Amino acid sequence: MQGRTWLAIGNFDGVHLGHQLLFERLRYEAEEDGSQAGVLTFHPHPRVFLQNISSRFYLTEPEEKIDLLREAGISNNYCIPFDRALANLSSEAFFARLLEHFALCGLVVGEDFVLGKNRSGTMDVISGI
């Protein structure tokens, strides 16, 4: 299990200005809490997998993304495979798996954040778990 962690979850393709502001908040929360900051991403991108996209889709390749995240001050990067099994997990099951691997202190996510099968896991749902 990872140590105490504040986590950002998302695809973060391109690591644009909005992502950088989110990472700044992530680093702040982790520092205030005395924990580590981490980013959890997926590959392939869920849309690529679910919509069977074969044309050029990514702004950055996974290795480039890790470099960009490090440049943004995030050294704890976790990329998990997005496959049918993951796509079929409910938000509750996905979050339970997160808790098996992380001593989660909190999440920092974008305003349109959802996770889980059928995008059912809003922050309201997750906070009730």
Primary descriptors:
single chain; 129 residues; alpha/beta; four-stranded parallel beta sheet; globular
Structure explained in plain terms:
There is one protein chain. With 129 residues, this protein is α/β, with parallel strands linked by helices. 40% of the residues lie in helices and 22% in strands. The protein contains 6 helices and 4 strands; from the N terminus they run βαβααβααβα. The chain has helices at 17-33, 46-50, 62-71, 84-87, 91-101, 123-127; strands at residues 2-9, 36-43, 76-81, 102-107.
Strand tally: 4
Overall form: globular
Specify Rg, calculated over alpha carbons: 14 Å
Q: pLDDT average, as an integer?
A: 89
Biggest sheet, in brief? Answer: 4 strands, parallel
Low-pLDDT sequence parts: none
Q: Topology of this structure?
A:
Blueprint: E1 2-9, H1 17-33, E2 36-43, H2 46-50, H3 62-71, E3 76-81, H4 84-87, H5 91-101, E4 102-107, H6 123-127
Parallel strand pairs: 1-2, 1-4, 2-3
